[in-house]
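ok new one. same drill as before - C-alpha cells go in, u give me an amino acid for every spot. 214 of them this time. try not to just spam alanines like last time pls lmao
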C-alpha cells in the first residue's frame, strides 16, 4: 500500500518530484525519464505510469531552463518508439504460445481473424490515436502484436504516433508552462490530462456495448 501511495503521489505531483530530482541528481533525470516512458509504453503490465502529464512537465522544465529541450525530446522520442516496438514484439511472440492457436479452448479463430483484419485496415489510426489515451497506449501495441499486424506498417505508424505525442505535448509544455495561470494550476492540468482521456475511453466503451445486438 505504501508503494501505491508513493506512485500516486509521484503521478499527481510529477512536476515537484522531477524538479527535486534534477536539483539532486542533475543529468540522471534523462535516464529516469527514458525508463518511465519506455516502461509505460513497452511493458503491458505498467499502464498506470504517467505519460501525457510527464511530457508536459518536461516541456515546461525545458522552457524554464532546467533541462535541455532537444536532448529531452530526442531521448523520450526514442523511448516511446522502442517501448511500443517492444510491446508489439511481446504480443507477437507470446500471443500464439499462450493461446496455442486452434488447440486451445481460449483461442477463437473468428475473433482472431477479425482482430487481424481490423489492425490491417485501421491499425495505423488506432496506434496513433492510442498514444494520447492512458492505458490504451500500453495495450494497443500489444494487441497489434497478438493480432499479427504487419510489422513494417506497425513500425511506420509507431514512429508517426511517437513524434506527434512526444513533440506535441513537450512543445505545449515548453511554450505554455511559463504562463502564470498554467504554473498556478498545474496540478489541475495534470488531473485533467489523466481523467479526460480516460473518461473518453470509458464513454466509448459504454457506447460500443449499448450498440451491440442483443
Amino acid at each position: 500500500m505504501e508503494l501505491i501511495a508513493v506512485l500516486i503521489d509521484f503521478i499527481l505531483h510529477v512536476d515537484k518530484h522531477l524538479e527535486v530530482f534534477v536539483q539532486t541528481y542533475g543529468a540522471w533525470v534523462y535516464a529516469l525519464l527514458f525508463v518511465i516512458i519506455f516502461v509505460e509504453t513497452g511493458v503491458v503490465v505498467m499502464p498506470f505510469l504517467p505519460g501525457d502529464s510527464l511530457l508536459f512537465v518536461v516541456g515546461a522544465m525545458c522552457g524554464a531552463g532546467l533541462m535541455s529541450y532537444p536532448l529531452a525530446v530526442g531521448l523520450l522520442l526514442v523511448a516511446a518508439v522502442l517501448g511500443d516496438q517492444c510491446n508489439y514484439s511481446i504480443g507477437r511472440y507470446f500471443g500464439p504460445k499462450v493461446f496455442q492457436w486452434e488447440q486451445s479452448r481460449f483461442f477463437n479463430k473468428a475473433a482472431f481473424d477479425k482482430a487481424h483484419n481490423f489492425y490491417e485496415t485501421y491499425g495505423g489510426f488506432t496506434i496513433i490515436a492510442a498514444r494520447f489515451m492512458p492505458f490504451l497506449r500500453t495495450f494497443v501495441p500489444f494487441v497489434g502484436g497478438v493480432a499479427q499486424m504487419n510489422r513494417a506498417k506497425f513500425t511506420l505508424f509507431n514512429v508517426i504516433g511517437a513524434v506527434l505525442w512526444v513533440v506535441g505535448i513537450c512543445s505545449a509544455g515548453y511554450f505554455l508552462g511559463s504562463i502564470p495561470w498554467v504554473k498556478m494550476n498545474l496540478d489541475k492540468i495534470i488531473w485533467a490530462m489523466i481523467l479526460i482521456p480516460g473518461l473518453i475511453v470509458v464513454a466509448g466503451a459504454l457506447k460500443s456495448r449499448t450498440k451491440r445486438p442483443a
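The longest helix spans residues 69-99. and btw The CA atoms of residues 146 and 167 lie 28 Å apart.
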